[in-house]
Amino acid sequence: MMSVFSLNFKNISRPTTTRDLLIYYAKKIDLVKEKLAKSFGLVCLTSDDWNSEHTNDEYICVTTHWVDKDLLILWTLCKPFLAILNSCLISMLRTPNQYLPLWPSVLMIWIMI
């Protein structure tokens, strides 16, 4: 259908899109791990939770913040997302202390602990 509007449009299949996104994600993970390895070791982890208005799904996003060692003169703050968690258990978690059991699983993915 889109080829009618643009002759340069190339239809991409769902498996191709999935494969390409997983490759892109793996490259980004490696890049973030390299940057974290070069950091001073002073890393701040934060989390934020929200819910989808349409599906009532709840999410927790874990973000890390650090100052890039290579760009220390410019004080470049790096803050990539580490994880976005979606679980039926999240709806029962209402206080920061209840979030604590989720942190080790997120950090183990990134081999930070």
Name the descriptors.
113 residues, alpha+beta, 4-stranded antiparallel β-sheet, metal-binding, zinc ion binding, ZnF_BED_domain_contain, zinc-finger
Question: What would you note in describing this structure?
Answer:
By secondary structure, the protein is of the alpha+beta class. It has one domain. The protein is 36% helix and 23% strand. The protein contains four helices and four strands, in the order ααββββαα. Strands 1, 2, 3 and 4 form a four-stranded antiparallel sheet that branches. The model has no long low-confidence stretch (mean pLDDT 72).
> Distance between termini?
49 Å
Using the alpha-carbon principal axes, give the shape: extended
What's the structural domain tally?
1
Calculate the mean pLDDT score and round it: 72
Sheet-strand content, in percent, reads 15-25%
Classify the oligomer: single chain
Low-confidence stretches: none
The total beta strand count reads 4
The rounded Rg comes to: 19 Å
Classify the secondary structure makeup into a structural class.
alpha+beta
Explain briefly what this protein structure is.
This protein has 113 residues and is α+β, with helices and mostly antiparallel strands.
Describe the SSE topology.
Blueprint: H1 2-5, H2 14-38, E1 44-51, E2 58-67, E3 77-78, E4 81-86, H3 96-99, H4 102-109
Antiparallel strand pairs: 1-2, 2-3, 2-4
Keywords: Metal-binding, Nucleus, Zinc, Zinc-finger
GO cellular component, one term: nucleus
Protein name: AC9 transposase
